[in-house]
Design a protein that fits this description.
The complex is a heterodimer of chains A (263) and B (218). Helices cover 74% and strands 0% of the residues of chain A. Chain A is built from nine helices and no strands. Chain B has a domain at 3-83 and 149-216: Rossmann fold (3-Layer(aba) Sandwich), CATH 3.40.50. In chain B, strand 9 and strand 10 (206-212) form a beta hairpin. The longest helix of chain B is centred in the last third of the chain and has 18 residues, at 161-178. Chain B is globular and about 45 Å long. Classes of the chains: A mainly alpha (263), B alpha/beta (218). Chains A and B meet through helix 6 of A and strand 1, helix 1, helix 2, strand 6 and helix 5 of B.
Chain lengths: 263, 218
């Protein structure tokens, strides 16, 4: 692959675009200037830091360090996703399991099928993408699950009242949550190349790679990510829905005392 | 005795909903009567173990219901909530789902007939039904599990007078034809008198009185 050198001066030059964004915000009174400033500083600090970490891991060439880094990403990802899933009781454990399982299964398959060699240079970026996408998918899925379980509570309880299990009663809600967690990536995969160029391909083209290689690598990553988001959304919803129910197949915190007004 | 409650208390959000409530429901048709917000629906939900009291015991035919398998209990004791809450699909889909929970094939014509619906309703999408028709479908769906006991929460509150009379006839018929015991929640003492043999009257989560309907509501 052909190398590319990027100087700090070039990065600084790109800040002109940030200045435009801040100017627009100020001009139209959107009040985003402070957030834009924070975003610029945080992105610089975080990416520079992770750059050093990745450099160190590449230099060490240690798979143990790779696993450690990915484990940290899983934990941070689970906490971040939990903030989106605040209406789901006990969401952290399902999210941790969902991200860990999704990363392990997809990276394991990628290595097992011989798509990438077991080297930090491949595992770190692919693992990071997998965990990032798995996090978004499971966060969206659980966020939707929380809304579904609240909005659909009368129907769920009416189904329980027939002697259905929690699993049967929650099935339509779980199905819709799973769907909403995966649909975004499915849709963007459908339109990829037509409406937008995905990041990996852009990066490779900028770095001077052959377009055919760039396209093939991008396809691999898209397919890997589809698997990863499906596994994480499925795992998170399957583990989390039970937390809405008691051991006696009752919907928790449901309408006791909130008798519906008679007409 | 069909149901017995012994000193049942339940708080929700810090507010007492049921307070030291003891009551009994014999086999046959009983009514829980009380003003809006008095805890009637909560009481009915305890009978199907859709929630548990903080204190006190609920007995079903002499057994503490916490000792029963909740799924088995709910297949014997079917609760129809106040507002219709059907699954997406047709009327027949809903009846098949409910019957399937007890591994049965539903006799659609019979179930629809018992709930006072024409056969042609089987293939109707539930979203295209009136509230009264949905409420009848809820009753037909509950019957599809072939329960021993029906718990009906204000089954006519969303209906006009004509539809109400018709649902009331259905309730009376169900008891006569199938011999099911029925517990019906209503805010209307007149309706309790028309339908029930036994009345439990509550207010603010407490028992006011209970006894044979003829004596109490005369």
């Amino acid at each position: 692959m052909i190398g590319i050198d990027v100087t700090l001066g070039e990065v600084a030059a790109a800040l002109v675009l940030v200045a435009i964004a801040a100017a627009i915000s100020r001009w139209r009174g959107a009040g985003l200037e402070a957030d834009i400033g924070i975003a610029v500083v945080r992105s610089f600090v975080q990416l520079t830091a992770i750059g050093f970490v990745i450099t160190a891991i590449f230099d060490e060439d240690s798979l143990l360090l790779v696993v450690g880094l990915l484990a940290v990403m899983v934990v941070f990802g689970a906490f971040t996703a939990r903030a989106r899933a605040r209406h789901v009781p006990g969401a952290l454990t399902p999210l941790l399991i969902a991200l860990a399982l999704s990363a392990t299964a997809t990276l394991g398959l990628v290595l097992g099928l011989g798509i990438f060699p077991a080297e930090p240079r491949y595992l770190v970026p692919v693992g990071g993408m997998v965990i990032g996408n798995a996090m978004t998918a499971s966060a969206v899925a659980l966020n939707r699950l929380g809304d579904e379980m609240r909005g659909d509570a009368p129907r769920i309880e009416a189904t329980l009242a027939l002697g259905a299990t929690a699993r049967q009663a929650a099935a339509p809600s779980v199905r819709r949550a799973l769907r909403s967690g995966t649909i975004a990536l499915v849709d963007s995969t459908k339109t990829t190349g037509l409406i937008f160029f995905p990041g990996t391909m852009v990066g490779m083209l900028l770095a001077g790679a052959d377009p055919t290689d760039a396209v093939r690598l991008q396809l691999i990553l898209l397919y890997v990510l589809l698997g990863a988001v499906a596994i994480s959304a499925l795992t998170a919803t399957t583990l989390a829905y039970r937390n809405f129910f008691t051991a006696a197949e009752q919907l928790r915190d449901r309408g006791d005392g909130a008798e519906q007004p008679a007409q | 005795m069909l149901f017995e409650l012994e000193r049942v208390s339940l708080r929700r959000g810090g507010e007492p909903v049921l307070v030291e409530l003891s009551a009994r429901f014999p086999e046959g048709v009983s009514a829980i009567v009380g003003p809006s917000g008095s805890g009637k629906s909560t009481l009915l939900r305890l009978l199907d173990r859709l929630s548990d009291p903080d204190r006190g015991v609920v007995m079903f035919r002499g057994t503490d219901i916490r000792e029963l398998d909740p799924l088995q209990l709910r297949r014997e004791v079917a609760l129809v909530p106040q507002l219709p809450a059907l699954l997406d699909g047709t009327v027949a889909d809903n009846l098949r789902f409910a019957a399937g929970l007890s591994d049965r094939d539903p006799d659609l014509d019979r179930l629809l007939g018992l709930a006072g619906l024409e056969r042609s309703f089987a293939d109707r999408d539930v979203e295209r039904l009136s509230v009264g028709e949905q409420q009848r479908t809820m009753i037909a769906r509950a019957l599809a599990t072939e329960p021993d006991v029906l718990l009906l929460d204000e089954p006519t509150s969303a209906l006009d007078e004509q539809a109400r009379d018709s649902v009331e006839r259905t309730v009376v018929d169900l008891h006569r034809k199938l011999g099911n015991s029925i517990v019906i929640v209503t805010h209307d003492p007149e309706q309790a008198r028309r339908l029930a043999e036994w009345v439990v009257r509550i207010d603010a989560g407490r028992l006011v009185e209970q006894g044979a309907a003829a004596g109490m509501l005369a």
